[in-house]
Amino acid sequence: MDNQTISPRQFMFLVILFSVGSSILIVPTPLTANAKQDAWMSISISVAVGLILVVLYNHIATLMKGQTFVQATISVFGNWLGRVLLFFYLSFLYILASLVLRNIGDFMTTQIIPETPLQFTHILFLIVVIWGAYLGLEAIGRSSEMFMPWVVLLLVFFTISLSPQIKMENLQPVLSNGIVPVLETSTFVIGTPLLEMVTFLMIIPYVKDGKTKKRAWLLGTFIGGAVLTLITLLCILILGSDLTALNTYPSYKLAQKINIAGFLEGLEIIIAIIWMITIFFKMVILYYSTTVGIAQFLTMEDHRPLLLPLGMGMVVLSIIAYPDVAYFETFINETWFPYAMTHGLIIPLIVWAGLLVKSKKQTKPQHDRS
Amino acid sequence: MNLYSKAIFLAVCLLLLSGCWNSKELDDLGIVVAVGIDKTEDDQFLLVTQVINPSEIATDAPTTRPPVSIYESTGDSLFEAFRNMTEKSPRKMYLSQLRLLVIGRGLAEEGILPSLDAFYRDHEFRTAFFVTIAKDTGVKDLLKVLTPYEKIPANKLMHSMEAVQRSLGSSKGVVIDELIGQILSKGQSPVLPGLLIDGDSDIGTAIENIEKIDAPTQLRIDNLAVMEEDRLIGWLTPEESKGLNYITGDMKSTTVSYPCGDEGLISVEVLRTDKSSKAKFEDGDPTISIELELEGNVGELDCPIDLTKAESIETINGEVEKRVKQKMEAAIKAAQEDFGSDIFGFGNLIHRKNPAYWKTVEKSWNSKFKELKIDIQVKAQIRRKGNSTQPITKEE
Amino acid sequence: MKGNKTNHITPPDAQPLHSSLDDNVNDLRTTLGNSSDFVTRLFSIHKTSAAILYMDGLVDKNTVQNFILESLMLEIPAKRPITHHLYESIKKANLPIGELSEVEDKHDLLKKLLSGDTILLLDKETKALSISTKGWSDRGVQEATSESVIRGPKEAFTETIRTNTALLRRKIKDPDLRVEAKTIGRKTCTDVAMVYLEGTAEKEVIEQVNERLDQIDIDAVLESGYIEEFIQDAQYSPFPTVYNSEKPDAIAGGILEGRVAILIDGTPNVLLVPALFVNFMQSSEDYYQRADIGTLVRLLRLFCFSVALFMPSLYIAFTTFHQEMIPPPLLISLASQREGVPFPAFVEALMMELTFEVLREAGIRLPKPVGSAVSIVGALVLGQSAVQAGLVSPAMVIVVAITAISSFVFPAYNMAISIRILRFPMMILAATFGLFGIILGMIAIVFHLSSLKSFGKPYMAPLAPMIGKDQKDVLIRLPHWGLLSRPSFFTKSDQKRVDSTSKER
Questions:
Q1: Counting one residue from A and one from C, how many pairs have CB atoms under 8 Å apart?
Q2: Nearest alpha-carbon partner for A25 in A252, A181, A206
Q3: Sign of dihedral through CA atoms C335, C340, C345, C350?
């Protein structure tokens, strides 16, 4: 691979954009459908769980000693067993990327350009993603720094302009159905985006400065989680839990309610820009790590030749991934969490155990000698 | 150029040259500002749209053509009716700028939730339009009336609605997501403003209507309609409507007048209201207590009263409190006795206060509501008396 | 001035001079094809025949007359004869001229001769003396034409490299200011000079510039654009990665930031590298006006950058895709304007933008008196009449006008061109995908910008990568007493600019 590196701050921005992207569109609805007005609590709980998860990932990253997850797995489990594990890991990333692509496509064709065929929306989006992945991690990191101020600015604008419409009583009664539905729905956010952060095990070796990058990951997860909480909270505070659960894209509906001085209406498109930017980054990170991972899996020197063929596959996969939105909703509610759990927790745990054993073996002879 | 750039180049060409699926030129749009829906006799949906004629509105040289046009169609569903409309209209109906949805009385009595779905689902609709009910007239007649002063009738209605809500308080604008939220919530029933035609509806449709200084036919915002869930069950009087707005805290500014002396009248301008309502539980039974603080000015004074004295202000305060409380009580009485519908959202208050109790009464809330005890406290404060210190009276 | 570096353009074979004067002169005559501006003056000093050769028009005739011919023909004969060391004595004692060199090779001799030196040949000598007598009529230092300022020096570089280096020396009187000379161009043998501050400019950058300049093998360099295209980093990018200016103060400012200027003989446009995105958004005047004005103007430029790039495409996207975003009264008025316009908004915009580009190009090329006629045609005929004829909507004319005005705000012409280029793909994207297309286009542009480098420096620095302490002079400009350090994205050495105590009262 090329020796491009990113700074811990850029890494943190990528983590934030990754955790916000696409989740911001799909999370509030199922969450409020199950946990009602306590949905924000589910997110807070899952962010706490997510932080523990990131500690684990960070530990794995330390044990990988500058190798990517793919390289580390092969070196621990050998060429065959390692590749079997990696096949699942990489397919997870690839499928996830195509689902994210479908999310943005669905959103665009539902809300903004309904008459445009889905596949063309996907192709255009993917061309830019391929372009980003082609330019490499350095450009991705720097662009995240270019966009981050805008995302923050628009988010602050979004919050402030909606704040007059906040009705605090929408949050009451607190925990009326007990803690059980809250805990149940928190698995949803753990599934997307927190377990998906296993992707960053492909990125973190390229981050400069070993000490602060761990903190950057934790902080990024925290901030990303906070943004998700904020958006869900705003949905509940303004739309109420019933309407939030009724809307496919409540955060977009929320933006439609912005009305400044009776003149500045219809700002939802501006808000759609933030969503698009965050989803774009999620997509480009996933796509980059998938192609780099596959390139390392196949022991290729450069990931670039893979970009276009994999992209063509992804367009097709994203179209056939699910037949309709209702199918997707059941999928994301019921299937996704165990699926993400397998690849985001169990496979990393296996590799972690392997890495531990290996590093013990390596340190022991040294002890014997001394 | 390597294979890569060739492939991307081709893909980009393919995308860009075949594009424009969604583009609609501005002059291909029929900008709909108001939609009326109702049921026809053979149980089909009747759809009436008011479309603006842009070149007539933004022009230096107005012609005699009307600023808006009306199209009408029917269909088994509203969506179908919308598409059927293309048979008549030259342009595709563009609904994002919708200001007003008028629901016919017949449909409202049957239940409006099924028809609202179309307005909430389609991406073209934005949520900032008012939902109203046509009282005593057909929706088509109502949307046909040309209005003086404001060229677009829907805009006129919207502005009047806002003005009524801001400075009279006998009605209020309800936007669609608020309405749907209230219908979905079990602890509150919605109210909707009514619309009326003043005068002969046939004259109203002609351009002569707006050529006269005193337009013979005009549109008016009427009092609030009471709904039970999504069905229209009755109408409040102006006093009750005001009372409702006091209770729900939607009253911004209004007047309170009462007679004094023999023929005189005092009018107080209410500037601000501050409402707080709470649910309390005594022996497992809920009561609602409402505290309302008013702040106002003396607006008009037509009776011998010495305003320099502190007591007279006290008297006015007391009288205002009494009148306001009467209105609120009237509204509650109407809701509890005549309609049996919780239009104040007391159910939600109880839900928030005591979710466990709410679970037991949720199903039969409207009947429980009839026996709900409500305690009202009003506190009025007259701060200023305007420019004149005393009533303008001739010494006798 | 350092001596000439070894020239990489090696002559085919070294040709030593003949020992006979006549042979030499005849040989040169044939080589130059009996050119009419080739002057040979044969004479003799103490019975040794000698010849003075120069190109008419390239030499200062006074110098040749007063200091060469006079001293050789009048002063030497007056002294006692020195026959056997005539050449050495002339070289040592008899030419009161500052710059003098010895040539032994015919190609060297020709090069000197053609760049304005006077050659002294003696019979029976295989060496010739080359006397620097360069002097031709040039334009003199005049006011800058392409970059005008309200406040600040008005002078501009000229076509003569020596004048230009002098202009820079006059601004930076530091012994560390280095002027490294090179000759590029097989046929033109153009003088090129690298100017930088030793110890301030980064060694890697200087090395890279040297390397890239030495690599150039071209027959002719007529303008700095030739060099720019050879040394720029991004060949296939619409964005410029080499800055150019004809204002000595702007270039001197760049040199003081630790950058390297490249002066090319024959053009007033001096190159400056590394050049980052923010440099093209800044003008030297930002530093002459007060800090708050400078800041405001910079923000204004950034705003105009986005307007110039996105305005037409946003108009297309809003009016054909996202009508719900337009406030209702505006929508009604726009819709009424569009009634009867026969073209789709995209074609309308494309037409107007193209017309404008044509007008602009015509305005530059036309002689000044005719230029005003073009603007009348542009403003009246195309603006008003097109609207009255119902070919375009008035709103479109406004959009195009705003875009055009915004694109003139940039101090750097080449950045304005890249925006002009990018505007059209953005319009196509807007016409096919609406805002979705515009946003993706924007993301692609930002990614492209972030991936660019100029002489090893990230193009978007100090915005991406973000360098906190360098923000003082990017989007905002702090007062001069606050600009404590040089921009660290150009150079890490010799950082201190202002002593923090200089503004204490």
A1: 90
A2: A252
A3: negative
pLDDT tens figures, B147-199: 887 888 888 888 888 888 888 888 888 888 788 888 888 778 888 888 888 88
Count each helix (H run) and each strand (E run) in chain C, helices first: 18, 12
Report the candidate in A333, A340, A272, A282 with the shortest Cα–Cα distance to residue A88: A340
Nearest to B27 among C328, C335, C428 (CB): C335
Which DSSP helix (H) or strand (E) runs through B384?
A: strand B373-384
Coil, strand or helix at C268: coil
**CB contact C324 to B (< 8 Å):** yes
Which of the other chains make 3 or more beta carbon contacts under 8 angstroms with chain C?
Answer: A, B
In a domain, A278, yes or no: yes
Domain assignment of residue A359, yes or no: no
Q: B268: part of which helix (H) or strand (E)? A: strand B264-282
- Contact criterion met (CB below 8 Å) for C253 and C284: yes
Of A113, A177, A246, the CB nearest to B22: A113
Write out the residue range of the structural domain in which residue C213 sits.
161-275
Q: Looking at the 3D structure of chain A, how many domains does it have?
A: 1
**Which stretch of B14-18, B320-324, C236-240 has the lowest confidence by average pLDDT?**
B14-18
CB C146 within 8 A of CB C49: no
Domain check: are B192 and B246 in the same one? no
Q: Which domain holds residue B333?
A: 238-396
The SS3 assignment for B374 reads strand
Pairing of strands B285-301, B130-134: unpaired
Residue C151 inside a domain? The answer is no
Residues C51 and C124 reside in one and the same domain:
yes
Residue B15 is assigned to a structural domain of this protein: no
Q: Report ipTM for this prediction.
A: 0.91
CB-nearest partner of A128 from C435, C444, C451? C444
Distance from C-alpha of A58 to C-alpha of A341, rounded to nearest angstrom: 17
* Minimum CA–CA partner of C444 in chain A: A128
Would you say residue C10 lies in a domain? no
Strand order in C260-264's β-sheet? Answer: C177-184, C190-197, C260-264, C270-273, C243-245
Close Cβ partners of C345 (under 8 Å, ≥ 6 residues apart): B25, B26, C315, C316, C319, C320, C338, C396, C431
Give chain C's domain count. 4
Q: What proportion of chain B, given as a percentage, has pLDDT over 70?
A: 91
Backbone angles phi, psi at B139, to 5 degrees: -65, -35
> Within a domain: residue A369?
no
Q: Is C140 part of a structural domain of the chain?
A: no
> Which helix (H) or strand (E) element contains residue B274?
strand B264-282
C-alpha–C-alpha distance, residues A216 and A220, integer Å: 6
Sequence-distant (6+) residues with CB within 8 A of A287 are: A97, A129, A130, A132, A133, A307, A310, A311, A314
**Nearest CA-CA partner of B173 in B95, B253, B250:** B250
Hey, is the C-beta of C323 within 8 angstroms of any chain B C-beta? yes
CA distance C344 to chain B (A): 7
How far, in Å, CA of C187 to CA of B283, rounded? 108
Dump pLDDT digits (tens) for C48-107: 888 888 888 888 888 888 888 888 888 777 776 665 677 888 888 777 887 888 888 888
